[in-house]
Records
---
Amino acid sequence: MKKKIGLALGSGGARGLCEIGVLLWLKEHGIEVHCVAGTSIGSIIGGAYAAGFSPEYMREIALSMGWLEFLKAFRLSFKGRSVLEWDKIEAMLRVDLGGKKIEDLPIPFACVAADLDSGREFVFKEGDLVAAMGASACIPGVFPPVELLGRHLVDGELVNPVPLDLAKELGADRVIGVNASRSVFTDRMSHEAGHIGLVEKLDGWVRDSIEKNPLMSSFNARKWLDSVAGDRERKRRRNLIDAFTDSIAIVTSRVLVQNELNAGPHFMINPEVGGFQTFDFDRAQTIIAMGYEETESISGELLEFIEN
């Protein structure tokens, strides 16, 4: 009897775009996916895939995410609950996904959030798809908790970074996990192409805008910014959002080890994306390629796992 293949797509912010590369490889090699479980960015990519989006279409969307689109999506919050707001991201997701229900998707799907009130895992197996994605992906402190079903829900990374067990619950005989966790060790903080954080990227965008504005240039605003910022070493400096995401990464590494021990037989794909930051969406092409290349490099073992 043909074995049912399940995917467990993990958390990681922009690092999770490597999961698109894995999906591209699986499609290219004719491997049928019977169910998908996701956490955080894995819930967004996995939910879109389960809804019928092709990996090629998801890659196209990811590659179109330039800095202008990024700034439109990630709006700063002034309500005191978080650094960024989630509402515009939700609106963007609804453009393509509308009001789709999880239970009606062509491929069985479920995703994980963390319940702040109980400290426990909360699993979505039915209901509004986009709302479930939002609850699963809201990094605490960075985005506000999602108030849903009488609960306060945040990023599922806190409780189940790569939901291998959930894929099995959905009926998978063979579970393939994708781990896009961040490295928090200082000697691995920088990717070979350089480590530039969200705050530094915004700073660079402001500076470029000033240079193009004759009025601002006349006031020598760039020099003023330099005097305020100082001569900063950017390579390994952690800013506020780094502190949030690195703290979660420490928890993630320990939870993932324990969950893998309890998950039983599975195959974990580990693209080397740990040096990228949570908001490196402008590095999509590189990250997606790394997911594909890592899958290709271990293809013999993966195919053997699937078949035997």
Note: The chain has 13 helices and eight strands.
---
Amino acid sequence: MFVKKNKSSSTATLMVLLMLPFQMILSQSETSSDFRKTVITRDFLSEGVATGDLNKDGQMDIIAGYYWFEAPSWKRHEMAPSRIFDPRKEYSESFLNLGMDINLDGWDDVVIIDFPGKMGFWFENTKNKPGPWPKHIIADSMGISNESPGFVDIDGDGRIDILCGDLEKKQIVWLQAPLKPGEIEWKRHALSYENVAGTNQFSHGIGLGDLDADGLDDVVVTDGWFKGTSDLKSGNWEFHEADLGEPCSHMQVLDVNHDGKNDVVSASAHRLGVWWHEQLEGQNFTTHLITNTTAQTHSSIMADLNGDGRSDYITGKRFLAHNGNDAGDGDTPYLFWIEFTTEAPYFVEHPIDSNSGAGLNIAIADMNKDGMPDIIIANKNGIFLFENQIQK
């Protein structure tokens, strides 16, 4: 049900085209001509993925779990002992990844979010020296409860933080990366009270954005939202119950229908559907289906793929999410993006690929330095780079 946007088409024609099967639109190739696909490996190493210039040669490398792939040859390197996993029998030891200079020494390091409920950790770059990378625990061994923690800048200092639930205290928190050169400790800061919604082990769905238009970011979960304050360490953000859909992946906050009120976009983590939850008066919400093309869209990210100044929504199927034990687990592993438009129905779907899918997080980076954001994927189907060739 994907179609390329035709600016001269009427809304009625567009709606008909949106109902066409995905297979009919991508009948000539498994990859859209808008992207150049590179298969880095078909090995299952990680469902997290990230980028960073790990060897300081001026080129962006690809990170997948305990491995990194050196650009431009994509030679494989190991940060710590690991192995190839069996996608039909086991999970990897790496669910989400992030590349950033954590200890501010000028070298990119690697964050690993492990199985839900376990502690996060990071590997310290050895600066091109041989041997395993030193491993550091994040936030005093706090268990990260939910399946889709957010990599976001909570305090606006330009540094990426981790938005998540504390497994033990059932509390919405953010983990702050070190702020001074040489520091290695992340700091835990509470936003909500203890024992709140969206913080159980395997909780699905969390996001950050200004829902009530007061100029301050709020935290959204599927059961509602926590009203943000200027105090990012208070632990007293009040919860407002709302129906923001079923268990999902990363939740995105944006004004879909241009009515001045921010809405929430989410995608089903293990079932079927991508939706936008329209904000009505009084912070009530009604849900609209965007697509039911594929199930288990267990990650999402926003990026301006087509250069029109508006952020687009990228997601895809988590192939063999539960090792082939769910209905549709092994169906076609689609990867696609949704363009948000100014006229109803306010979105157009576009295919990227039908033999990759997505994992538990998606990375965006300008890998080839052409000024366009590219897409990097890691999952049970392998590791992939999609270079953006969309014509502006």
Note: Confidence is low (pLDDT under 50) at residues 1-24.
